[in-house]
Q: What sequence folds into this?
């Protein structure tokens, strides 16, 4: 019990803070808005750290990349399996939320105005001229001045530059060692900055939520509860049904038996620690017991921890659909639906290798690509907090069954 409380301590504290904030908002209503500045402090600190966090985590991740034991067919197969499973996961997430109104509020315009007032002072002008798709893509991926990379408004451009910079450092080789050391040290520092900010998270999120509920009523709180319940149900069904199907594809009836006979230790470790990385050793052992060769297990599981997360992708869809409901965004065309699918995939797959702060970066990408106010970031942070445990279980177990599929493709039916 003590170990359970220790592993879940930060999550429990955040959830309790959010619940207390909701109660304060419901009881005091409009008077609770006096707490908004305390919530703004947390939001502002988070937004200030986002650009250096993206740059340093992405570049250091790339500069420290190690080549897996076997390249060629194994790596290509792993990436293909990850991609296909991720696409299936995002469709499941969309199908499970498309007909469910995660949050029901009549104050959509009021909420939009309240969230956007925090970014009006940035001085950004609304574009009135139509631009081509290619030009819009170019503007999204790049900026015309280095100083613009320091702005949170150009998150994707920062991400692209960080990837290029990291690759360039790798290409330079031994001569770039001083830069690698500097980046590693700076990354450790910025990670500690994030940790310090997160110490304030219970107060910040609690006050933010109290003000939010006080302004817009209890419907937003009910929305979080509904989101947690729906996500948990979807996660359980996905875990049982989809992973059974994947195991059957990999090894028929024997594959299904092997999967369910050996998956419990990694599942329980994921549930107890809420950490994909902490589950790697146990997960590798579980995969080997299922009949996965050592080299494939020891390659697929670590790579999967960084680049394949079914639970996080489904969670990204839930975050997007929560915002869609909250802001009354129409999803009436195939293009709208494709946009949700594309953003969910990109926002998750582009940053899953980031060890600390990846969730925040993913949420920033969702807001940036869909055009929602950045002040809505705490809303997505709260959703990420309440679905963390079931999402981690899907992330870890998805890597286990992925190793079975890779084995089936690489080594054949037997």
A:
């Amino acid at each position: 019990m003590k170990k359970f409380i220790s592993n879940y301590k930060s999550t429990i504290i955040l959830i309790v803070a959010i619940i207390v904030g909701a109660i304060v908002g419901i009881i005091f209503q409009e008077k609770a808005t006096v707490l908004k500045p305390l919530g703004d402090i947390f939001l502002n600190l988070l937004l200030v750290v986002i650009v250096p966090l993206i740059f340093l985590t992405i570049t250091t991740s790339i500069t420290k990349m190690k080549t897996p034991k076997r390249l060629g067919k194994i790596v290509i197969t792993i990436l293909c399996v990850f991609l296909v499973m991720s696409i299936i996961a995002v469709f499941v997430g969309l199908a499970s939320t498309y007909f469910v109104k995660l949050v029901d509020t009549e104050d959509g315009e009021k909420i939009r105005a309240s969230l956007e007032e925090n970014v009006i002072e940035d001085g950004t002008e609304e574009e009135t001229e139509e631009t081509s798709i290619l030009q819009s893509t170019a503007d999204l991926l790049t900026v015309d001045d280095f100083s613009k990379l320091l702005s949170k408004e150009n998150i994707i451009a920062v991400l692209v530059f960080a990837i290029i910079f990291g690759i360039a450092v790798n290409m330079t080789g031994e001569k770039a060692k001083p830069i690698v050391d500097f980046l590693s040290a700076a990354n450790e520092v910025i990670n500690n900055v994030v940790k310090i900010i997160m110490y304030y998270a219970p107060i910040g999120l609690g006050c933010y939520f109290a003000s939010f509920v006080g302004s817009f009523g209890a419907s937003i709180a009910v929305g979080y509860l509904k989101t947690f319940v729906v996500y948990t149900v979807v996660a359980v069904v996905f875990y049982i049904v989809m992973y059974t199907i994947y195991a059957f594809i990999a090894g028929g009836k024997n594959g299904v038996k092997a999967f369910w006979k050996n998956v419990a230790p990694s599942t329980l470790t994921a549930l107890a620690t809420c950490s994909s990385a902490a589950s790697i050793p146990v997960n590798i052992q579980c995969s080997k017991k299922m009949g996965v060769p050592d080299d494939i297990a020891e390659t697929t599981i670590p790579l999967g921890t960084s680049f394949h997360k079914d639970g996080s992708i489904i969670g990204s869809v839930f975050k997007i659909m929560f915002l869609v409901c909250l802001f009354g965004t129409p999803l009436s065309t195939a293009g709208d639906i494709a946009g949700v699918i594309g953003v969910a995939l990109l926002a998750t797959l582009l940053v899953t290798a980031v060890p600390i702060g990846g969730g925040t970066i993913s949420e920033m990408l969702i807001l940036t690509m869909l055009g929602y106010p950045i002040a809505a970031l705490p809303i997505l942070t709260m959703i990420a907090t309440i679905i963390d445990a079931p999402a981690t279980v899907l992330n870890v177990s998805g890597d286990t069954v992925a190793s079975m599929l890779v084995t089936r493709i690489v080594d054949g039916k037997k």
Remarks:
- Residues 238 and 394 are 8 Å apart (CA to CA).
- The chain is about 75% helix and 0% strand.
- The radius of gyration is 22 Å.
- Confidence is low (pLDDT under 50) at residues 120-131.
